[in-house]
Amino acid sequence: EVQLVQSGAEVKKPGESLKISCQGSGYNFDTYWIVWVRQMAGKGLEWMGFIYPGDSETRYSPSFQGQVTISADKSINTAYLQWSSLKASDTAMYYCARQDSKGFDPWGQGTLVTVSS
Amino acid sequence: QSVLTQPPSASGTPGQRVTISCSGSSSNVGSKPVKWYQQLPGTAPKLLIYSTNQRPSGVPDRFSGSKSGTSASLAISGLQSEDEADYYCAAWDDRLNGPVFGGGTKLTVL
Lengths: 117, 110
Hints:
The complex is a heterodimer of chains A (117) and B (110). Chain A has 117 residues and is an all-beta fold. Helices cover 0% and strands 53% of the residues of chain A.
């Protein structure tokens, strides 16, 4: 079964750093793009960026360029999303998903990030 | 605001047919395949329709997609209570060089 499993919920203070993860299984992790998507409370889906784990090529949405860093370690089938200095406005649910020929499928279960002083 | 435009809400009674619209432009819906995602309450989104009108394995044929020009639609026939969810349309956008989503439509089964 193709599956993406994300790291657990995080509670952080403004200014702190954070790295969340997304581990794939059941398929060749190297050869599919992984996308990160933000969903703020009660809001819609926003594309943040992609990474190709095979060579770590990344593409960022203009809205998130410079705000986050996407990386991957193909040796452990894991993609990452990180912040160097969190803001309260980063509070949201973050999803990873595999991009295949049909679309984003499957999705991880989501990681809730709460930033509050 | 989202690049693709969806109505914020839709509703129907069990057994009815409902449609959800998705309006875009020539750089996305008008020239690219449309996808639809279903997000049940408290869960991650799930791919419901791809290539505008194709269903992944396991998706009931009550769900169908279509497109005309720069607008797409998702139709759900034989509405069931378990269809109550948020539905998002999506497409690649050539101008933004990335995927764009609709704002989502909350479907209520009365």
